[in-house]
Design brief:
single chain; 150 residues; five-stranded antiparallel sheet; alpha+beta
């Protein structure tokens, strides 16, 4: 095992991957990626906004395929393979959410800030594109729309 500060020891940098029906915690995700050798932690928090495409959103509901958590881990492993990640955590919410609720929280810790930003951006972009999680938005005028289910 190599204990030099800039080197990855033989350990799993993926500290937390979860899909949950309960409210998410920024503190939990941030603490999960704590690493004394990390000089930068990039944190992304996705929230439910009050509009989409010019329509007012009242609430939304996330649902997922049973493979969603495994797919999140697969994507996290790809990010870890591509970037010098010291620690990574990602949690996505399912169920009914209101405006302002946290939908996804993720963090990536790397030795340098630039790497952390790049790895975090890849992680959220790939999660949104590839993980089988769908949302149903309910609009103020009474209509609804599925996103990501096509």
């Amino acid at each position: 095992m190599n204990d030099h500060p800039g080197k990855c020891a033989a350990r799993d940098p993926i500290k937390l991957i979860a899909v949950r029906e309960t409210p998410l915690s920024v503190d939990e995700v941030f603490k999960a990626v704590g690493d004394d050798a990390a000089g930068g932690v990039a944190l992304f928090v996705g929230t439910v906004r009050n509009h989409d495409g010019g329509a007012d959103v009242d609430e939304l509901a996330y649902s997922c395929h049973p493979s969603a958590e495994a797919e999140m881990r697969r994507i996290a492993e790809e990010v870890v393979a591509e970037y010098p990640v010291r620690a990574l955590a990602a949690v996505h919410r399912v169920g009914d959410l209101g405006v302002g609720d946290l939908a996804v929280v993720l963090a990536v810790a790397c030795t340098h800030r630039g790497e952390a930003f790049e790895a975090c951006r890849k992680l959220i972009d790939d999660l949104k594109r590839e993980v089988p999680i769908w949302k149903r938005q309910r609009f103020s005028e009474g209509t609804e729309e599925w996103v990501g289910a096509g």
